[in-house]
Specification:
This protein has helices at residues 2-11, 32-74, 81-93, 120-124, 170-186, 203-222, 277-289, 348-372, 384-388, 390-394, 413-426, 443-451, 481-533, 542-585; strands at 109-115, 131-134, 137-145, 151-159, 162-164, 190-196, 231-240, 243-246, 252-258, 264-267, 272-274, 293-294, 302-303, 306-314, 327-333, 398-406, 435-436, 456-458, 471-472. With 586 residues, it is α/β, with parallel strands linked by helices. The strands form four sheets. Strands 1, 5, 6, 7, 8, 9, 10, 11, 14, 15 and 16 form an eleven-stranded mixed beta sheet that branches. The radius of gyration is 39 Å and the shape is flat. The N and C termini lie far apart (112 Å).
């Protein structure tokens, strides 16, 4: 019985055996995994909070930028807000002091720079000004961005004889740089003023104002005391590619020849007499209306030729073309310079024009450089432009003024740098020359706090902020691999264009000759038919007729084959030009 009771008690659910005691549960302990999970959740919450804070900060910064853009636009300031702030910070830390315009006595070459204001197209594109000008210095603020997409400035300084900012008028430029040329002409010299710069930088605008003021001063000086000292003559022509065209005679083609004594003359050039400033200005306006222009990517009406207008002072009563002038003033408006990559969207005509323009501009630079170094040899034969201006380079009493026109727009900074380098090298500065900007003493330190974080660097890579004497190595002294590559590409393309032009001239000459020969053969055929079909002819020699007709046909076939071969050679040059253009500029 006892065993049965014990078994029954064990089988009954919910009742423990009185002889067996269960252990006490005690306090519960959390596992280690639970602790780790809580810490991870807290970390995630912290990261999420930091992310939300960054998003809120970025949103606020974006709104601040929008507000700054609106505020700048209300003030008439456009462009990238960050770059504008960096440029303003640089200017605040480096307040440049402009010097008065003082002509350099006895200088044969004067180089000046003119910065135009932002035009309507640049304002519409929300461009910002990236130049700081203070005579005789100009600084280009090149906008850059590193691999981390951090914006910074590359500030490149230049120094010239004269620098004119947007606030300076055309009269300021004329009085400081071009007015001495009129006096020099009156003294029996050969004076030349020319404008160089990218398309749309204000060359033609500047030269027209200089031209008008020079005309007025010429007649004021010539007619002083009521008695004209000299007769005033004028000529205008353009150099368009390989052609020279008379702008006072409806673009009549002209020949440039050199005699045994080395004197260059433009054969057939029209010279008109002017008895008043108004009449002389009318002649200039007539020439301007005939000048060759085309629409390009940079300008709706771009000058595609070099315009040369010359004022001659002739002895009274001697206005013949052979008479030696007392003095000459040449006013040259050069065609706009273009880089190779800027011509990739051009058609063949605009591409070849650009190549010929750049080749002649390079030749002009070398001539002026030789002039400034007083070299005995000046390579004026390198282009038609320098050839017709030979007297300006070789005459002992010569004076030249170069006006480099630049755009202040940030997107034109590379064009501006190239223009300023061209002008800078004309003066042939000594190697290692340091440019010291005229920074006001004490002002830089006061503005250093405002300039903090601007992230700008000078051309040599040093920090350009807060320095009382901001110096930089001129760009001539640094290796310009990109510029050298562009020069090599331009030289190769210019060679292809020269071959193309030579083949074109040869083809045209042969075509003209073929037309003339065909005309004579047509007359021979007419005579042959008359001898056969004339009503007075009773009989004719059929063998003689066949022989003569065969001779005419064979001659015509030979002429056609020669012309076809010449055309095939020309088309090969066309394909070569196209291939080189795509290889270098696409």
């Amino acid at each position: 019985p006892g065993a049965r009771d014990t078994a029954a008690r064990r089988a009954m659910p919910g009742k423990a055996s009185p002889s067996v005691k269960s252990p006490s549960p005690g306090p519960k302990r959390a596992p280690d995994s639970a602790k780790k999970g809580g810490a991870t959740l807290n970390k995630i919450k912290e990261l999420e909070a930091a992310r939300q804070a960054r998003r809120q900060e970025a949103k606020q910064e974006k709104q601040k930028k929008v507000d700054k853009v609106k505020r700048n636009e209300e003030l008439g300031i456009f462009g990238d807000v960050e770059f504008n702030e960096k440029i303003d910070a640089w200017r605040g830390a480096n307040p440049m002091v402009s010097e008065p315009h003082v002509p350099e006595p006895g200088a044969r070459i004067c180089v000046c720079v003119r910065e135009r204001p932002l035009n309507s197209k640049e304002v519409a594109r929300h461009e910002h000004a990236a130049l700081t000008a203070a005579n005789p210095y100009v600084v280009v603020h090149e906008s850059k961005m590193d691999v981390a997409k951090v914006k910074f400035l590359n500030n490149i300084p230049f120094k010239f004889d004269h620098v004119f900012g947007p606030e300076d008028s055309s009269e300021d430029l004329y009085q400081a740089a071009a007015r001495p040329l009129v006096d020099f002409m009156m003294e029996g010299g050969y004076a030349t003023v020319f404008a160089y710069g990218q398309t749309g930088s204000g060359k033609t605008f500047t030269m027209r104002h200089v031209q008008t003021m020079a005309v007025n001063d010429t007649f004021k000086t010539v007619g002083k005391n009521g008695v004209p000292k000299y007769e005033v003559m004028v000529s205008c022509f353009e150099i368009y590619g390989p052609r020279c065209q008379d702008l006072l005679n409806y673009r009549e083609r002209l020949d440039i020849l050199e005699d045994s004594k080395g004197r260059v003359s433009v054969v057939g050039l029209t010279k008109k007499r002017a008895t008043s400033a108004k009449q002389l200005e009318e002649h200039f306006n007539e020439a301007a209306s005939l000048r060759t222009t085309s629409k390009t990517d940079a300008n709706d009406e771009s000058s595609r030729s070099h315009s040369v207008c010359q004022i001659f002072l002739q002895p009274p009563g001697d206005v013949s073309a052979e008479a030696k002038p007392h003095g000459v003033l040449s006013i040259v408006d050069l065609a706009g310079s273009e880089r190779g990559q800027d011509t990739k969207s051009h058609n063949r005509q605009l591409r070849t024009e650009a190549a010929e323009i750049n080749t002649s501009l390079l030749a002009l630079k070398e001539c002026i450089r030789a002039l400034s170094k007083h070299n005995a040899h000046v390579s004026f034969r390198a282009s038609k432009l320098t050839q017709v201006l030979k007297a300006s380079f070789t005459f002992k009493r010569s004076m030249t003024v170069m006006v480099a026109t630049v755009s202040p727009a940030a997107t034109s900074a590379d064009h501006t740098i190239n223009t300023l380098r061209y002008a800078d090298r004309v003066k042939e500065k000594a190697a290692g020359t340091r440019i010291v900007l005229p920074i006001a003493q004490g002002a830089a330190a006061a503005a250093a706090a405002a300039a903090s974080g601007a992230g700008s660097t000078t051309h040599d890579g040093s920090d350009g902020e807060g320095a009382a004497e901001a110096t930089a190595t001129p760009p001539d002294d640094e290796p310009e691999e990109e510029e050298e590559a562009d020069a090599e590409a331009a030289e190769a393309y210019a060679s292809a264009v020269e071959d193309l032009r030579s083949a074109e001239e040869s083809l045209l000459a042969m075509h003209i000759q073929a037309v003339e020969q065909n005309a004579r053969m047509c007359m021979d055929e007419g005579t042959l038919l008359t001898g056969v079909l004339d009503k007075n002819v009773i009989d004719y020699d059929i063998d003689e007729y066949a022989e003569k007709l065969e001779a005419i046909l064979l001659s015509r076939l030979s002429i056609t084959n020669d012309l076809q071969r010449k055309l095939s050679e020309f088309r090969t040059r066309l394909r070569n030009e196209e291939a080189i253009s795509r290889m270098h500029f696409d």
